[in-house]
TrEMBL record:
Binding site residues for Zn(2+): 63, 66, 89, 92
Name under which the protein is recorded: Ribonuclease P protein component 4
Gene field: rnp4
GO biological process, one term: tRNA 5'-leader removal
Molecular functions (GO terms): ribonuclease P activity; zinc ion binding
Keyword terms, alphabetized: Cytoplasm, Endonuclease, Hydrolase, Metal-binding, Nuclease, tRNA processing, Zinc
Length: 121
């Protein structure tokens, strides 16, 4: 297949497939963790091939360093440190730091809107 931008419908299929792969990875993790890692690998390949980001829902469910599927309470620890989400991968010891900004912004906006609503009433 040639390089370059893919049509939208193709990207949508890629996203759908990534979702399916991660859902399966989650289901199989307890009994077959090696399968989960393989699914992550496949999803990452799709993401590169179609130049599409891994769905946000799943982007924190694999290690950016060793590409292993992460299952909180089994092979990773999730902590909230200084308004940052720290995901510690027990497989390779890598810590992923994700800013909590987005969620915060969302909350602030919700608060503002509720105040506005009250004033309008
Ligand atoms: Zn790792």
């Amino acid at each position: 297949m040639s390089r370059g931008k893919r049509p939208k419908w193709m990207i949508n299929i890629a996203i759908e497939r990534m979702n399916i792969l991660f859902e399966r990875a989650e289901l199989e993790f307890i009994n077959h963790p090696e399968r989960s890692d393989r699914y992550v690998e496949l999803a990452k390949k799709l993401s590169t091939k179609y130049n599409t980001k891994i769905p946000e829902k799943w982007s924190r469910r694999y290690c950016k360093n060793c590409s292993k599927f992460l299952y909180p309470g089994h092979n990773c620890t999730v902590r909230l440190v200084n308004s940052e989400v720290n995901i510690f991968c027990s497989e390779c010891g890598h810590v992923m730091k994700l800013p909590y900004r987005k969620e915060k912004k969302h909350k602030r906006r919700a608060k503002y809107e509720s105040i506005k609503k009250r004033n309008d009433e």
